[in-house]
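Budget justification note: compute hours in this period were largely spent on complex prediction jobs such as the one shown. Inputs:
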Amino acid sequence: MSYSAEISRSSPACVILMIDQSASMEDPIGGDAPGRKADVVADAINRLLTELSVKCAKEDGVRDYFHVGVIGYGHTTVGPAFGGVLAGRDLVPLSQVADNPARIEERVKKVPDGAGGLVESVVRFPVWLDPKANGGTPMVRALNHVAGLVSGWLAEHPGGFPPIVLNLSDGESTDGDLVAAAASITGQASADGGVLLFNLHVSAAGGTPAEFLSTDVSLPDQHARSLFAASSVLPPSMLAYAASQGKAVNEETRGFVYNADIAGVVQFLEIGTRATELR
Amino acid sequence: MLSPYVDRYLVPKRGSTSEQCEDAIELSAGPGQDRRTVDTIVAVVCDGASESILAGTWAGQLAARVVQEAASRPGLAAQRGGLAQAICAAAWAWADWSEVYVADRIAAGRPIAWYEQPKLDQGAFATVLAVELVATRRGRHAGDDMMVVADTVSEPREWSWYAAALGDTCLFHVRDERLISAFPLDDVAGFGVSPALAGSRNRDMDQLAAHTALASGSCRPGDQVFLATDALAAWFLAEHGRGARPWWQLRDFAGRNEEFAPWIEQERTGHRMRNDDVALVHIDFG
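Corresponding output:
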Protein backbone atom coordinates (compact mmCIF):
# COMPACT_ATOMS: atom_id res chain seq x y z
CA MET A 1 0.00 0.00 0.00
CA SER A 2 2.67 2.45 -1.02
CA TYR A 3 0.96 4.53 -3.71
CA SER A 4 4.16 4.25 -5.70
CA ALA A 5 3.00 2.30 -8.77
CA GLU A 6 4.18 3.73 -12.06
CA ILE A 7 1.61 5.76 -14.01
CA SER A 8 2.38 5.35 -17.71
CA ARG A 9 0.84 4.30 -20.99
CA SER A 10 1.60 0.68 -20.20
CA SER A 11 0.30 1.09 -16.65
CA PRO A 12 -2.41 3.79 -16.77
CA ALA A 13 -4.40 5.10 -13.83
CA CYS A 14 -8.11 5.88 -13.60
CA VAL A 15 -9.60 9.24 -12.63
CA ILE A 16 -13.34 9.61 -12.13
CA LEU A 17 -14.92 13.03 -11.68
CA MET A 18 -18.38 13.15 -10.08
CA ILE A 19 -20.51 16.26 -10.52
CA ASP A 20 -23.61 17.18 -8.55
CA GLN A 21 -26.29 18.41 -11.02
CA SER A 22 -29.19 18.70 -8.56
CA ALA A 23 -31.52 21.69 -8.14
CA SER A 24 -29.71 22.93 -5.02
CA MET A 25 -26.71 23.66 -7.25
CA GLU A 26 -28.76 26.56 -8.66
CA ASP A 27 -28.06 28.49 -5.44
CA PRO A 28 -25.22 30.99 -5.24
CA ILE A 29 -21.94 29.89 -3.73
CA GLY A 30 -21.28 31.49 -0.35
CA GLY A 31 -18.60 34.02 0.47
CA ASP A 32 -17.28 36.77 -1.76
CA ALA A 33 -17.07 34.71 -4.95
CA PRO A 34 -19.99 35.39 -7.33
CA GLY A 35 -21.83 32.71 -9.30
CA ARG A 36 -24.04 29.68 -8.91
CA LYS A 37 -22.71 26.47 -7.44
CA ALA A 38 -23.57 24.71 -10.73
CA ASP A 39 -21.32 27.13 -12.64
CA VAL A 40 -18.50 26.67 -10.16
CA VAL A 41 -18.47 22.86 -10.36
CA ALA A 42 -18.87 22.74 -14.16
CA ASP A 43 -16.00 25.18 -14.48
CA ALA A 44 -13.94 23.08 -12.06
CA ILE A 45 -14.58 19.88 -14.06
CA ASN A 46 -13.54 21.61 -17.29
CA ARG A 47 -10.39 22.95 -15.65
CA LEU A 48 -9.55 19.56 -14.12
CA LEU A 49 -9.79 17.94 -17.56
CA THR A 50 -7.72 20.77 -19.04
CA GLU A 51 -5.01 20.46 -16.37
CA LEU A 52 -4.85 16.69 -16.77
CA SER A 53 -4.63 16.93 -20.57
CA VAL A 54 -1.89 19.56 -20.45
CA LYS A 55 0.03 17.58 -17.83
CA CYS A 56 0.12 14.55 -20.13
CA ALA A 57 0.66 16.47 -23.39
CA LYS A 58 3.67 15.75 -25.54
CA GLU A 59 4.53 16.96 -29.02
CA ASP A 60 2.95 13.85 -30.54
CA GLY A 61 -0.33 14.25 -28.63
CA VAL A 62 -1.71 13.61 -25.17
CA ARG A 63 -0.47 10.34 -23.69
CA ASP A 64 -2.92 7.89 -22.17
CA TYR A 65 -1.46 7.90 -18.67
CA PHE A 66 -5.06 8.17 -17.43
CA HIS A 67 -8.50 6.94 -18.38
CA VAL A 68 -11.10 9.45 -17.31
CA GLY A 69 -14.79 9.34 -16.49
CA VAL A 70 -17.20 12.17 -15.68
CA ILE A 71 -20.32 11.01 -13.85
CA GLY A 72 -23.19 13.43 -13.29
CA TYR A 73 -25.99 13.02 -10.79
CA GLY A 74 -29.21 15.02 -10.42
CA HIS A 75 -32.99 14.52 -10.48
CA THR A 76 -33.41 10.85 -11.42
CA THR A 77 -30.28 10.57 -13.51
CA VAL A 78 -26.90 9.04 -12.69
CA GLY A 79 -24.49 8.50 -15.57
CA PRO A 80 -21.87 9.82 -17.97
CA ALA A 81 -21.87 13.62 -18.23
CA PHE A 82 -19.50 14.32 -21.10
CA GLY A 83 -20.99 16.48 -23.83
CA GLY A 84 -20.16 16.36 -27.54
CA VAL A 85 -18.99 13.18 -29.22
CA LEU A 86 -18.00 11.62 -25.89
CA ALA A 87 -21.60 11.72 -24.61
CA GLY A 88 -22.67 8.46 -23.02
CA ARG A 89 -19.16 7.11 -22.44
CA ASP A 90 -17.97 6.04 -18.97
CA LEU A 91 -14.16 5.72 -18.98
CA VAL A 92 -12.33 7.36 -21.87
CA PRO A 93 -8.56 7.34 -22.61
CA LEU A 94 -7.22 10.83 -21.89
CA SER A 95 -6.03 11.44 -25.46
CA GLN A 96 -9.62 11.05 -26.69
CA VAL A 97 -10.85 13.40 -23.96
CA ALA A 98 -8.28 16.02 -24.97
CA ASP A 99 -9.07 15.73 -28.66
CA ASN A 100 -12.84 15.87 -28.20
CA PRO A 101 -14.08 18.72 -26.04
CA ALA A 102 -17.67 19.70 -26.86
CA ARG A 103 -16.28 23.09 -27.90
CA ILE A 104 -13.32 25.40 -27.32
CA GLU A 105 -14.08 28.89 -26.04
CA GLU A 106 -11.76 31.85 -26.00
CA ARG A 107 -11.43 33.48 -22.60
CA VAL A 108 -9.52 36.53 -21.45
CA LYS A 109 -6.95 35.75 -18.79
CA LYS A 110 -4.51 37.99 -16.96
CA VAL A 111 -0.94 36.78 -17.39
CA PRO A 112 2.41 38.18 -16.19
CA ASP A 113 3.82 40.79 -18.59
CA GLY A 114 7.42 39.99 -17.70
CA ALA A 115 7.89 43.35 -16.01
CA GLY A 116 6.10 42.67 -12.75
CA GLY A 117 2.62 43.54 -14.00
CA LEU A 118 -0.31 41.73 -15.58
CA VAL A 119 -1.61 41.92 -19.10
CA GLU A 120 -4.81 40.50 -20.60
CA SER A 121 -4.34 37.58 -22.94
CA VAL A 122 -6.82 35.43 -24.87
CA VAL A 123 -6.51 31.73 -24.04
CA ARG A 124 -8.32 28.71 -25.41
CA PHE A 125 -10.66 27.12 -22.85
CA PRO A 126 -12.02 23.69 -23.76
CA VAL A 127 -15.49 22.79 -22.50
CA TRP A 128 -16.66 19.21 -22.03
CA LEU A 129 -19.83 19.89 -20.08
CA ASP A 130 -22.17 22.78 -19.26
CA PRO A 131 -23.74 23.67 -15.90
CA LYS A 132 -26.89 21.77 -15.04
CA ALA A 133 -29.19 21.91 -11.96
CA ASN A 134 -32.32 19.84 -11.65
CA GLY A 135 -34.26 17.80 -9.05
CA GLY A 136 -32.91 15.83 -6.09
CA THR A 137 -29.38 14.67 -5.28
CA PRO A 138 -28.97 10.90 -5.79
CA MET A 139 -25.43 10.96 -4.46
CA VAL A 140 -25.61 7.53 -2.86
CA ARG A 141 -26.70 6.01 -6.16
CA ALA A 142 -23.91 7.91 -7.90
CA LEU A 143 -21.29 6.69 -5.42
CA ASN A 144 -22.51 3.12 -5.90
CA HIS A 145 -22.35 3.57 -9.69
CA VAL A 146 -18.77 4.81 -9.41
CA ALA A 147 -17.92 1.93 -7.05
CA GLY A 148 -18.93 -0.37 -9.91
CA LEU A 149 -16.66 1.45 -12.38
CA VAL A 150 -13.81 1.30 -9.88
CA SER A 151 -14.37 -2.41 -9.33
CA GLY A 152 -14.22 -3.06 -13.08
CA TRP A 153 -11.03 -1.04 -13.43
CA LEU A 154 -9.33 -2.84 -10.53
CA ALA A 155 -10.20 -6.23 -12.04
CA GLU A 156 -8.21 -5.23 -15.14
CA HIS A 157 -5.44 -3.30 -13.33
CA PRO A 158 -4.95 -5.08 -9.98
CA GLY A 159 -1.37 -3.87 -9.47
CA GLY A 160 -1.69 -0.31 -10.77
CA PHE A 161 -1.96 3.03 -9.04
CA PRO A 162 -5.38 2.96 -7.37
CA PRO A 163 -8.27 4.87 -8.97
CA ILE A 164 -8.82 8.45 -7.86
CA VAL A 165 -12.38 9.75 -7.52
CA LEU A 166 -13.11 13.47 -7.21
CA ASN A 167 -16.63 14.38 -6.14
CA LEU A 168 -17.84 17.96 -6.60
CA SER A 169 -21.02 18.69 -4.66
CA ASP A 170 -22.84 20.75 -2.06
CA GLY A 171 -23.13 17.58 -0.01
CA GLU A 172 -26.92 17.60 0.24
CA SER A 173 -27.56 13.95 -0.59
CA THR A 174 -31.29 13.16 -0.87
CA ASP A 175 -31.07 9.38 -1.14
CA GLY A 176 -29.24 8.27 1.98
CA ASP A 177 -26.01 8.26 3.95
CA LEU A 178 -23.20 9.42 1.67
CA VAL A 179 -20.47 8.44 4.15
CA ALA A 180 -21.52 4.79 4.09
CA ALA A 181 -21.85 4.84 0.29
CA ALA A 182 -18.40 6.42 -0.04
CA ALA A 183 -16.96 3.44 1.83
CA SER A 184 -18.06 1.23 -1.08
CA ILE A 185 -15.44 3.13 -3.10
CA THR A 186 -12.69 3.65 -0.52
CA GLY A 187 -13.05 0.07 0.72
CA GLN A 188 -11.61 -1.16 -2.59
CA ALA A 189 -7.88 -1.32 -3.30
CA SER A 190 -5.23 -2.30 -5.80
CA ALA A 191 -2.00 -3.94 -4.65
CA ASP A 192 -0.56 -0.40 -4.57
CA GLY A 193 -3.11 1.21 -2.24
CA GLY A 194 -6.71 1.95 -1.37
CA VAL A 195 -8.94 3.81 -3.82
CA LEU A 196 -8.80 7.57 -3.17
CA LEU A 197 -11.94 9.68 -2.84
CA PHE A 198 -11.51 13.45 -2.66
CA ASN A 199 -14.35 15.93 -2.28
CA LEU A 200 -14.85 19.54 -3.31
CA HIS A 201 -17.61 21.03 -1.23
CA VAL A 202 -19.29 24.06 -2.79
CA SER A 203 -21.39 25.66 -0.11
CA ALA A 204 -23.72 28.62 0.27
CA ALA A 205 -22.82 28.77 3.96
CA GLY A 206 -19.86 31.02 3.36
CA GLY A 207 -16.90 30.99 5.69
CA THR A 208 -13.26 30.84 4.74
CA PRO A 209 -12.34 28.85 1.61
CA ALA A 210 -10.00 26.04 2.61
CA GLU A 211 -8.07 23.25 0.93
CA PHE A 212 -6.77 19.99 2.33
CA LEU A 213 -8.00 20.14 5.90
CA SER A 214 -6.88 17.90 8.75
CA THR A 215 -9.93 18.45 10.94
CA ASP A 216 -13.59 19.35 10.44
CA VAL A 217 -13.85 21.81 13.33
CA SER A 218 -13.91 24.88 11.09
CA LEU A 219 -16.58 23.51 8.76
CA PRO A 220 -19.94 25.30 8.89
CA ASP A 221 -22.52 22.49 8.69
CA GLN A 222 -23.25 18.77 8.63
CA HIS A 223 -23.07 18.62 4.80
CA ALA A 224 -19.48 19.79 4.90
CA ARG A 225 -18.60 17.47 7.79
CA SER A 226 -20.10 14.48 5.97
CA LEU A 227 -18.06 15.16 2.84
CA PHE A 228 -14.96 15.63 5.00
CA ALA A 229 -15.61 12.28 6.72
CA ALA A 230 -16.03 10.61 3.33
CA SER A 231 -12.70 11.96 2.04
CA SER A 232 -9.49 9.89 1.92
CA VAL A 233 -6.37 10.84 3.83
CA LEU A 234 -3.72 12.04 1.35
CA PRO A 235 -1.10 9.34 0.68
CA PRO A 236 2.55 10.12 1.57
CA SER A 237 3.70 11.12 -1.93
CA MET A 238 0.84 13.63 -2.25
CA LEU A 239 1.47 14.97 1.24
CA ALA A 240 5.12 15.47 0.34
CA TYR A 241 4.20 17.37 -2.82
CA ALA A 242 1.62 19.50 -0.97
CA ALA A 243 4.22 20.32 1.68
CA SER A 244 6.75 21.26 -1.01
CA GLN A 245 4.19 23.75 -2.33
CA GLY A 246 3.95 25.41 1.06
CA LYS A 247 0.64 23.88 2.14
CA ALA A 248 0.18 23.13 5.83
CA VAL A 249 -0.41 19.38 5.83
CA ASN A 250 0.11 16.48 8.21
CA GLU A 251 -0.58 12.75 8.27
CA GLU A 252 -4.26 13.41 9.00
CA THR A 253 -4.80 15.76 6.04
CA ARG A 254 -7.67 14.71 3.80
CA GLY A 255 -8.46 15.27 0.16
CA PHE A 256 -11.18 17.78 1.01
CA VAL A 257 -11.53 21.29 -0.40
CA TYR A 258 -14.10 23.81 0.80
CA ASN A 259 -15.26 26.51 -1.64
CA ALA A 260 -11.74 26.64 -3.10
CA ASP A 261 -9.88 25.60 -6.24
CA ILE A 262 -9.53 21.84 -6.72
CA ALA A 263 -7.92 21.82 -10.19
CA GLY A 264 -4.49 22.02 -8.54
CA VAL A 265 -4.95 18.47 -7.26
CA VAL A 266 -3.91 17.27 -10.71
CA GLN A 267 -0.37 18.34 -9.86
CA PHE A 268 -0.36 15.84 -6.99
CA LEU A 269 -0.19 13.05 -9.56
CA GLU A 270 3.29 11.90 -10.53
CA ILE A 271 3.91 10.82 -14.11
CA GLY A 272 7.65 11.53 -14.21
CA THR A 273 10.12 14.34 -13.73
CA ARG A 274 8.26 17.56 -13.07
CA ALA A 275 9.01 20.46 -15.40
CA THR A 276 9.86 23.33 -13.08
CA GLU A 277 12.08 26.36 -13.34
CA LEU A 278 14.95 26.85 -10.92
CA ARG A 279 14.14 28.89 -7.86
CA MET B 1 48.40 5.96 -20.12
CA LEU B 2 46.52 5.86 -23.41
CA SER B 3 43.27 7.69 -23.97
CA PRO B 4 40.37 5.87 -22.40
CA TYR B 5 37.91 3.81 -24.33
CA VAL B 6 34.51 5.50 -24.30
CA ASP B 7 31.26 3.65 -24.89
CA ARG B 8 27.66 4.86 -24.83
CA TYR B 9 24.24 3.28 -24.34
CA LEU B 10 20.71 4.66 -24.67
CA VAL B 11 17.58 2.70 -23.80
CA PRO B 12 14.05 4.20 -23.93
CA LYS B 13 11.59 3.52 -21.15
CA ARG B 14 9.35 0.50 -21.59
CA GLY B 15 6.40 1.58 -23.73
CA SER B 16 8.38 4.22 -25.66
CA THR B 17 10.13 3.98 -29.02
CA SER B 18 13.78 4.95 -29.42
CA GLU B 19 12.55 8.16 -31.13
CA GLN B 20 10.63 8.98 -27.93
CA CYS B 21 13.70 8.54 -25.71
CA GLU B 22 14.27 11.84 -23.89
CA ASP B 23 17.80 11.14 -22.63
CA ALA B 24 20.66 12.39 -24.80
CA ILE B 25 24.40 11.74 -25.02
CA GLU B 26 26.93 13.83 -26.91
CA LEU B 27 30.64 12.96 -27.10
CA SER B 28 33.47 14.99 -28.60
CA ALA B 29 35.45 11.86 -29.47
CA GLY B 30 33.75 8.91 -31.04
CA PRO B 31 34.89 5.30 -30.77
CA GLY B 32 36.43 5.56 -34.23
CA GLN B 33 38.80 8.36 -33.28
CA ASP B 34 42.49 7.54 -32.82
CA ARG B 35 42.75 7.08 -29.06
CA ARG B 36 46.51 7.68 -29.06
CA THR B 37 46.31 11.30 -30.14
CA VAL B 38 43.23 12.56 -28.30
CA ASP B 39 44.07 14.69 -25.28
CA THR B 40 40.62 16.08 -24.43
CA ILE B 41 37.33 14.24 -24.37
CA VAL B 42 34.04 15.95 -23.57
CA ALA B 43 31.02 13.85 -22.62
CA VAL B 44 27.63 15.42 -21.95
CA VAL B 45 24.54 13.57 -20.75
CA CYS B 46 21.13 15.25 -20.53
CA ASP B 47 17.84 13.89 -19.22
CA GLY B 48 14.73 15.58 -20.63
CA ALA B 49 11.99 16.13 -18.03
CA SER B 50 9.11 13.85 -18.94
CA GLU B 51 6.43 16.39 -18.03
CA SER B 52 7.73 18.94 -20.49
CA ILE B 53 7.04 19.08 -24.19
CA LEU B 54 9.87 18.54 -26.71
CA ALA B 55 12.04 17.32 -23.82
CA GLY B 56 14.04 14.91 -25.97
CA THR B 57 14.72 17.54 -28.61
CA TRP B 58 15.87 20.02 -25.97
CA ALA B 59 18.06 17.40 -24.26
CA GLY B 60 19.72 16.62 -27.60
CA GLN B 61 20.25 20.27 -28.54
CA LEU B 62 21.53 21.11 -25.07
CA ALA B 63 24.03 18.24 -25.02
CA ALA B 64 25.32 19.12 -28.50
CA ARG B 65 25.64 22.80 -27.61
CA VAL B 66 27.58 22.11 -24.42
CA VAL B 67 30.07 19.92 -26.30
CA GLN B 68 30.39 22.62 -28.95
CA GLU B 69 30.97 25.34 -26.32
CA ALA B 70 33.52 23.16 -24.51
CA ALA B 71 35.47 22.81 -27.75
CA SER B 72 35.77 26.58 -28.08
CA ARG B 73 36.24 27.26 -24.36
CA PRO B 74 38.27 24.45 -22.74
CA GLY B 75 37.77 24.26 -18.99
CA LEU B 76 34.00 24.79 -19.21
CA ALA B 77 33.30 22.05 -16.66
CA ALA B 78 36.01 23.25 -14.31
CA GLN B 79 34.76 26.78 -13.79
CA ARG B 80 31.65 28.00 -12.05
CA GLY B 81 29.61 29.68 -14.73
CA GLY B 82 31.10 27.70 -17.62
CA LEU B 83 28.17 25.33 -17.92
CA ALA B 84 25.68 28.14 -17.23
CA GLN B 85 27.06 30.08 -20.18
CA ALA B 86 26.67 27.07 -22.46
CA ILE B 87 23.09 26.50 -21.28
CA CYS B 88 22.24 30.12 -22.02
CA ALA B 89 23.70 29.75 -25.51
CA ALA B 90 21.47 26.71 -26.04
CA ALA B 91 18.44 28.61 -24.74
CA TRP B 92 19.03 31.48 -27.20
CA ALA B 93 19.26 28.98 -30.04
CA TRP B 94 16.07 27.26 -28.79
CA ALA B 95 14.08 30.48 -29.13
CA ASP B 96 14.88 30.59 -32.85
CA TRP B 97 14.36 26.87 -33.28
CA SER B 98 10.93 26.88 -31.62
CA GLU B 99 9.69 29.67 -33.91
CA VAL B 100 10.61 27.52 -36.90
CA TYR B 101 9.02 24.49 -35.22
CA VAL B 102 5.68 26.28 -34.79
CA ALA B 103 5.77 27.49 -38.39
CA ASP B 104 6.59 23.98 -39.63
CA ARG B 105 3.68 22.53 -37.67
CA ILE B 106 1.29 25.02 -39.26
CA ALA B 107 2.71 24.30 -42.71
CA ALA B 108 2.25 20.58 -42.09
CA GLY B 109 -1.43 21.10 -41.26
CA ARG B 110 -0.89 20.21 -37.61
CA PRO B 111 -0.87 23.52 -35.72
CA ILE B 112 -0.05 23.57 -32.00
CA ALA B 113 -2.98 22.04 -30.13
CA TRP B 114 -4.64 23.79 -27.21
CA TYR B 115 -3.07 21.32 -24.76
CA GLU B 116 0.43 21.86 -26.17
CA GLN B 117 0.39 25.66 -26.04
CA PRO B 118 0.83 26.11 -22.25
CA LYS B 119 3.79 23.75 -22.28
CA LEU B 120 5.33 25.37 -25.34
CA ASP B 121 5.03 28.72 -23.54
CA GLN B 122 6.68 27.19 -20.46
CA GLY B 123 9.58 25.72 -22.44
CA ALA B 124 11.39 22.39 -22.29
CA PHE B 125 13.51 21.15 -19.40
CA ALA B 126 16.46 18.80 -18.90
CA THR B 127 19.25 17.93 -16.49
CA VAL B 128 22.85 18.38 -17.66
CA LEU B 129 26.05 16.58 -16.70
CA ALA B 130 29.13 17.85 -18.54
CA VAL B 131 32.44 16.04 -18.11
CA GLU B 132 35.79 17.09 -19.55
CA LEU B 133 38.58 14.52 -19.54
CA VAL B 134 41.95 16.20 -19.98
CA ALA B 135 45.35 14.56 -20.57
CA THR B 136 48.47 16.10 -19.06
CA ARG B 137 52.08 15.10 -19.66
CA ARG B 138 53.59 13.19 -16.79
CA GLY B 139 56.87 14.45 -15.33
CA ARG B 140 56.77 17.68 -17.32
CA HIS B 141 58.99 20.43 -15.91
CA ALA B 142 59.22 24.13 -16.63
CA GLY B 143 62.33 23.60 -18.70
CA ASP B 144 60.90 20.86 -20.83
CA ASP B 145 59.68 23.10 -23.62
CA MET B 146 61.47 20.99 -26.17
CA MET B 147 59.10 18.19 -25.30
CA VAL B 148 55.89 20.09 -25.98
CA VAL B 149 55.54 18.55 -29.40
CA ALA B 150 56.64 15.19 -28.13
CA ASP B 151 55.05 12.12 -29.64
CA THR B 152 51.69 11.68 -27.99
CA VAL B 153 51.76 8.01 -28.88
CA SER B 154 54.72 7.16 -26.70
CA GLU B 155 54.74 9.93 -24.13
CA PRO B 156 53.26 8.99 -20.75
CA ARG B 157 50.17 11.01 -19.89
CA GLU B 158 47.88 11.37 -16.92
CA TRP B 159 44.17 12.00 -17.17
CA SER B 160 41.97 14.19 -15.01
CA TRP B 161 38.23 14.70 -15.12
CA TYR B 162 36.25 17.88 -14.44
CA ALA B 163 32.49 17.65 -14.05
CA ALA B 164 29.70 20.23 -13.88
CA ALA B 165 26.18 19.09 -13.03
CA LEU B 166 22.74 20.65 -12.97
CA GLY B 167 20.26 18.07 -11.73
CA ASP B 168 20.56 14.39 -10.87
CA THR B 169 22.48 12.88 -13.77
CA CYS B 170 25.48 11.30 -12.04
CA LEU B 171 29.18 10.48 -12.41
CA PHE B 172 30.67 7.46 -10.64
CA HIS B 173 34.45 6.91 -10.44
CA VAL B 174 35.60 3.41 -9.53
CA ARG B 175 39.17 2.38 -8.61
CA ASP B 176 40.48 -0.90 -7.29
CA GLU B 177 36.93 -2.21 -6.79
CA ARG B 178 35.96 0.82 -4.72
CA LEU B 179 33.62 3.70 -5.54
CA ILE B 180 35.84 6.72 -4.92
CA SER B 181 33.53 9.46 -6.29
CA ALA B 182 29.77 9.75 -6.70
CA PHE B 183 28.71 13.13 -8.05
CA PRO B 184 26.49 15.13 -7.61
CA LEU B 185 24.46 12.57 -5.61
CA ASP B 186 25.97 9.91 -3.38
CA ASP B 187 22.77 8.62 -1.76
CA VAL B 188 19.79 6.99 -3.44
CA ALA B 189 17.51 9.05 -1.19
CA GLY B 190 18.59 12.15 -3.11
CA PHE B 191 16.60 11.20 -6.22
CA GLY B 192 13.09 12.57 -6.68
CA VAL B 193 10.75 13.98 -9.29
CA SER B 194 11.91 17.58 -8.97
CA PRO B 195 15.64 17.79 -9.73
CA ALA B 196 17.24 21.08 -10.75
CA LEU B 197 16.67 21.55 -14.48
CA ALA B 198 17.94 23.68 -17.32
CA GLY B 199 14.89 25.33 -18.86
CA SER B 200 14.90 26.32 -22.52
CA ARG B 201 13.65 29.81 -21.54
CA ASN B 202 16.08 30.31 -18.69
CA ARG B 203 18.91 32.66 -19.63
CA ASP B 204 19.71 33.73 -16.08
CA MET B 205 23.41 32.93 -16.00
CA ASP B 206 23.85 33.75 -12.31
CA GLN B 207 20.95 31.54 -11.26
CA LEU B 208 22.12 28.64 -13.43
CA ALA B 209 25.65 28.99 -12.07
CA ALA B 210 24.39 29.04 -8.48
CA HIS B 211 22.62 25.70 -9.01
CA THR B 212 25.58 24.07 -10.78
CA ALA B 213 27.73 21.63 -8.81
CA LEU B 214 31.41 21.11 -9.66
CA ALA B 215 33.80 18.24 -8.97
CA SER B 216 37.06 16.83 -10.29
CA GLY B 217 39.34 13.83 -9.99
CA SER B 218 42.41 12.19 -11.46
CA CYS B 219 42.52 8.81 -13.13
CA ARG B 220 44.88 5.87 -13.05
CA PRO B 221 45.20 2.86 -15.32
CA GLY B 222 42.35 0.46 -14.58
CA ASP B 223 39.93 3.16 -13.38
CA GLN B 224 36.33 3.15 -14.59
CA VAL B 225 34.12 6.23 -14.86
CA PHE B 226 30.38 5.95 -15.48
CA LEU B 227 27.93 8.73 -16.36
CA ALA B 228 24.28 7.75 -15.87
CA THR B 229 20.82 9.31 -15.88
CA ASP B 230 18.67 9.00 -12.77
CA ALA B 231 17.06 5.56 -13.05
CA LEU B 232 20.38 3.80 -13.64
CA ALA B 233 22.22 6.09 -11.21
CA ALA B 234 19.68 5.31 -8.46
CA TRP B 235 20.06 1.59 -9.22
CA PHE B 236 23.87 1.96 -9.01
CA LEU B 237 23.77 3.67 -5.61
CA ALA B 238 21.14 1.26 -4.24
CA GLU B 239 23.23 -1.73 -5.30
CA HIS B 240 26.37 -0.16 -3.85
CA GLY B 241 24.50 0.63 -0.65
CA ARG B 242 23.69 -3.02 -0.10
CA GLY B 243 27.32 -4.00 -0.53
CA ALA B 244 27.24 -5.03 -4.19
CA ARG B 245 29.64 -3.87 -6.90
CA PRO B 246 27.34 -2.53 -9.62
CA TRP B 247 30.29 -1.61 -11.87
CA TRP B 248 30.82 -5.32 -12.50
CA GLN B 249 27.64 -5.43 -14.55
CA LEU B 250 28.13 -2.08 -16.30
CA ARG B 251 31.70 -2.66 -17.48
CA ASP B 252 30.79 -6.04 -18.91
CA PHE B 253 28.81 -4.57 -21.79
CA ALA B 254 31.86 -3.24 -23.65
CA GLY B 255 31.80 -4.95 -27.03
CA ARG B 256 28.43 -6.50 -26.20
CA ASN B 257 26.26 -3.40 -26.52
CA GLU B 258 23.28 -5.36 -27.80
CA GLU B 259 23.00 -7.05 -24.39
CA PHE B 260 22.54 -3.78 -22.49
CA ALA B 261 18.86 -3.12 -23.29
CA PRO B 262 17.72 -6.67 -22.34
CA TRP B 263 19.65 -6.37 -19.07
CA ILE B 264 17.96 -3.02 -18.30
CA GLU B 265 14.57 -4.62 -18.95
CA GLN B 266 15.46 -7.49 -16.62
CA GLU B 267 16.27 -5.03 -13.81
CA ARG B 268 13.00 -3.15 -14.43
CA THR B 269 10.98 -6.35 -14.40
CA GLY B 270 12.64 -7.33 -11.12
CA HIS B 271 11.62 -3.93 -9.68
CA ARG B 272 15.26 -3.09 -9.02
CA MET B 273 15.20 -0.21 -11.50
CA ARG B 274 12.52 2.37 -12.23
CA ASN B 275 11.00 2.28 -15.72
CA ASP B 276 12.57 5.38 -17.24
CA ASP B 277 14.84 6.27 -20.15
CA VAL B 278 18.42 5.20 -19.48
CA ALA B 279 21.62 6.83 -20.70
CA LEU B 280 25.06 5.46 -19.82
CA VAL B 281 28.55 6.56 -20.81
CA HIS B 282 31.32 4.17 -19.80
CA ILE B 283 34.86 5.58 -19.73
CA ASP B 284 37.37 2.78 -19.36
CA PHE B 285 40.99 3.48 -18.40
CA GLY B 286 41.80 -0.22 -18.26
